[in-house]
């Protein structure tokens, strides 16, 4: 029953406990004052010592009571926070109504059911949302509740309510008596939409007249019982239960046809259906034929009217054969799962081994490269022969480091631990970044490189950091394996609807068909192992895996003596927009801050410029806020330490350290651990959200941004920050005093 469920409000400690502590402290203070006001001149030395002792005891008691009061206040604050989380996330509507019938507070579900914003719902009379013809039902239920308030019994009723736009609906109301913080009587309402249930009941009543006609011919076994005894069985049920006719079953106790292991559950279900009606879910049970043979069945119970009186219909389905097949399949699946587990374990062991070995190689490699560079630049200057050998050591060291990095990337991908954030990425911005990174290498080789000039912005669905890694790898290969004074041309074209191709064309020697077939094989350098060009043969393999994870394709075609073209195809995406149902905000001007108002700071850590611009436009709507931006986690941490923003908005997939790693650093730093951090990410799977909340994010928002949800969570974070700041200031003042 709803009226016996624990309300979320019960999680909040009663205010009376806090008042009692305060009264006790005041009493101790009065006693102390009375003792201190005694005429000390008339006291004997012994009495004076006794008086001083009593004053000290009372002082200690007062300090203990103050500490107990402080702990009670902290518990109250934490409990209220838990209460509001549970209150807002409840699947039913909660309202608190004053003695005058005004709505004092309501959760999101109640506001949604009534079709009005929660802020507009407060202070409205509850009668506004009850159909006039049904208001007497509500007031009668309320009257019965108030008359039975001493027993704390809840009252419930079903009546027709009306949404804000006038749409009527059937609702179930459960009322309980309560009091506000000042002791004034209030009502708590639990609101559920039961319109669908009422429609089902009406449909069942309309179909009762056609019941026998339809049920007799159905191939599904159906029986009806009342008070635990069968009163009807259709031909299919007679056959299923091994009877010769309906007379063999009529009047028979239902439990005689149920395996003893299921007696308790069948009795409980029958009792519940008799009291509350409705329809049960389809569940598996074991029944017995008349001769005692067990059969596995799926059963669904439904409350009906049979011959004008309440009864329970049970629909049965023989699943004995299916259960046997399920058992066989389960055994087979267990074998497959065991084999898959062994394969995954072996693959994980391989990836872990590669990762571990790669990391272990870095320490001695660091010493090799470090000392080799010291020898190269040290005194005395190396002889030409020595310098040649040192150059070979350094070249081999950097080659080995590149190989280690490639192996680490490949191991991360194959182990399934690589996390990508697929979202609309500006291709113009990505290519500009790649151009800045690769042009010095091209100039050193005497290679002329050209990039496309875009008339408009192109957006692709990809991970920004990993897309740059792929493009830079293709450009680096095009430069390394080009001819002296050659060219590299980057072009972009829409090959099919919704698909964009990025092509990197070089003027090198080209590849034969045999070598083209060997592309994207690990450690295969296509015969370049003995050349002067450095390489690992793993870059293209990593690029291919990354492109596939971004739901794209990578390929190449080449002509010997002319050159090669490597291309990447990705899905086109629309420019980042606000969430569904939210209008695109105009470019606003920052409103002036009112005199005396506090300017709050939001730090947004995001490498996608389009997303940064969207949040900038949203924050511009708030005259009390300013926005700081950082393109990576390291800079975001530095800005947080320097500027102490009230709230931090953090992307998860960032260049360098991830949002999760940045959050960990902020939480471990005493200077920033108090700042609430909101996640805003394209990683919207439930496991991603759960992982983020477990890591310590205040809330986890997903892209695209939904304006109302974003603003509401931002307000919650700002309020939390204000409370934290007040608490810290209080603790500071208390410590100083």
Indicate the CATH topology of the largest domain.
Answer: Heat Shock Protein 90
Largest sheet: 5 strands, antiparallel
CATH-defined superfamily of the largest domain: Histidine kinase-like ATPase, C-terminal domain
- In which range does the helix fraction lie? 40-55%
Taken as a percent bin, the fraction of beta residues is 15-25%
Q: Structural class of the helices, strands and pairings?
A: alpha+beta
Number of helical stretches of at least 4 residues: 20
Total strand count, please? 22
Cα(first) to Cα(last) distance is 53 Å
Query: Could you give the order of strands across the largest sheet?
Result: 2-1-5-4-3
According to CATH, what is the class of the largest domain?
Answer: Alpha Beta
Give the overall shape, derived from the CA principal axes. Answer: extended
Overall pLDDT metric: 81
Describe the structure.
The protein is an alpha+beta fold and 737 residues long. The protein folds into six domains: 2-88; 90-193, PAS domain (Beta-Lactamase); 201-318, Beta-Lactamase (2-Layer Sandwich), CATH 3.30.450; 336-414, Helix Hairpins (Orthogonal Bundle); 423-571, Heat Shock Protein 90; 600-736, Response regulator (Rossmann fold), CATH 3.40.50. Helix content is 47%, strand content 20%. The protein has 20 helices and 22 strands. It has a five-stranded antiparallel sheet with strand order 2-1-5-4-3, sandwiched between helices. A five-stranded antiparallel sheet has the order 7-6-10-9-8, with helices on both faces. A five-stranded mixed sheet has the order 12-14-15-17-16. α1 (15-36) runs antiparallel to α2, α12 (427-445) runs parallel beside α13 and α17 (633-643) packs parallel to α18. The longest helix is centred in the middle third of the chain and has 58 residues, at 320-377. It is extended, with a radius of gyration of 37 Å. Residues 1-15 and 581-593 have low confidence and may be disordered.
């Amino acid at each position: 029953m709803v009226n016996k469920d624990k309300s979320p409000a019960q999680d909040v400690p009663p205010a009376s406990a806090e008042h009692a502590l305060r009264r006790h402290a005041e009493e101790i203070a009065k006693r102390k004052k009375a003792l201190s006001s005694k005429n000390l001149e008339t006291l004997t030395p012994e009495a004076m010592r006794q008086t001083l002792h009593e004053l000290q005891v009372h002082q200690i008691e007062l300090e203990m009571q103050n500490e107990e009061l402080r702990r009670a206040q902290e518990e109250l604050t934490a409990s209220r926070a838990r209460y509001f989380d549970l209150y807002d996330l409840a699947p039913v509507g909660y309202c608190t109504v004053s003695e005058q019938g005004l709505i004092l507070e309501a959760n999101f579900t109640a506001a949604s059911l009534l079709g009005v914003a929660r802020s507009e719902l407060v202070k409205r009379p509850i009668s506004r949302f009850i159909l006039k013809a049904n208001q007497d039902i509500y007031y009668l239920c309320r009257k019965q509740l108030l008359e039975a308030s001493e027993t704390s019994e809840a009252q419930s009723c079903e009546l027709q309510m009306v949404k804000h736009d006038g749409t009527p609906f059937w609702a179930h109301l459960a009322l309980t008596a309560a009091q506000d913080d000042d002791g004034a009587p209030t009502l708590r309402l639990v609101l559920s939409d039961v319109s669908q249930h009422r429609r089902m009941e009406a449909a069942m009543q309309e179909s009762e007249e056609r019941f026998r006609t339809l049920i007799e011919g159905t191939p599904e076994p159906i029986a009806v019982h009342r008070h635990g005894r069968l009163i009807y069985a259709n031909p299919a049920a007679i056959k299923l239960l091994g009877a010769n006719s309906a007379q063999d079953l009529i009047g028979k106790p239902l439990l005689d046809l149920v395996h003893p292991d299921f007696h308790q559950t069948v009795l409980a279900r029958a009792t519940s259906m008799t009291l509350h009606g409705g329809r049960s879910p389809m569940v598996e049970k074991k029944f017995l034929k008349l001769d005692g043979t067990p059969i596995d069945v799926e059963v669904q119970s439904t409350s009906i009217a049979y011959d004008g009186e309440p009864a329970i219909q049970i629909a049965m389905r023989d699943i004995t054969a299916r259960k046997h097949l399920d058992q066989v399949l389960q055994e087979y699946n267990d074998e497959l799962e065991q084999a898959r587990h062994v394969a995954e374990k072996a693959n994980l062991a391989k990836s872990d081994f590669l990762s571990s070995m790669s990391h272990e190689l870095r320490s001695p490699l660091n010493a090799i490269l470090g000392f080799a560079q010291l020898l190269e630049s040290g005194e005395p200057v190396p002889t030409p022969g020595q310098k040649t050998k040192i150059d070979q050591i350094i070249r081999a060291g950097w080659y080995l480091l590149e190989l280690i990095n490639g192996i680490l990337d490949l191991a991360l991908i194959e182990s399934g631990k690589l996390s990508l954030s697929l979202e609309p990425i500006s291709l113009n911005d990505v290519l500009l970044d790649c151009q800045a990174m690769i042009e010095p290498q091209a100039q050193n080789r005497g290679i002329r490189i050209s990039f496309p000039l875009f008339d408009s912005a192109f957006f692709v669905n990809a991970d920004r950091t990993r897309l740059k890694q792929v493009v830079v790898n293709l450009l680096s290969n095009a430069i390394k394996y080009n001819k002296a004074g050659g060219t590299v041309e980057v072009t972009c074209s829409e090959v099919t609807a919704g698909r964009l191709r990025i092509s990197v064309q070089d003027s090198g020697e080209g590849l034969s068909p045999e070598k083209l077939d060997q592309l994207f094989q690990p450690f295969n350098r296509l015969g370049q192992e003995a050349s002067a060009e450095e390489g690992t043969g793993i870059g293209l393999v990593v690029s291919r895996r990354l492109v596939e994870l971004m739901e794209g394709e990578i390929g190449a075609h080449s002509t010997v003596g002319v050159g090669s073209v490597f291309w990447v195809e990705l899905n086109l995406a629309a420019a980042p927009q606000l969430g569904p149902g939210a209008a695109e905000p105009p470019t606003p001007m920052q409103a002036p801050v009112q005199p005396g108002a506090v300017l709050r700071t939001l730090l947004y850590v995001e490498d996608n410029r389009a997303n940064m611009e969207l949040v900038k436009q949203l924050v511009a709507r708030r005259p009390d806020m300013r926005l700081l931006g950082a393109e990576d986690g390291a800079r975001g941490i530095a800005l947080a330490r320097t500027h102490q923003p009230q709230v931090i908005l953090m992307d998860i997939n960032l260049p360098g350290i991830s949002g999760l790693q940045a959050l960990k650093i902020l939480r471990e730093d005493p200077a920033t651990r108090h700042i609430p951090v909101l996640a805003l990410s394209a990683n919207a799977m439930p496991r991603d959200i759960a992982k983020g909340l477990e890591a310590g994010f205040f809330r986890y928002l997903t892209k695209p941004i939904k304006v109302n949800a974003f603003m509401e969570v931002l307000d919650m974070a700002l309020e939390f920050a204000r409370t934290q700041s007040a608490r810290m200031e209080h603790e500071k003042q208390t410590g100083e005093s």
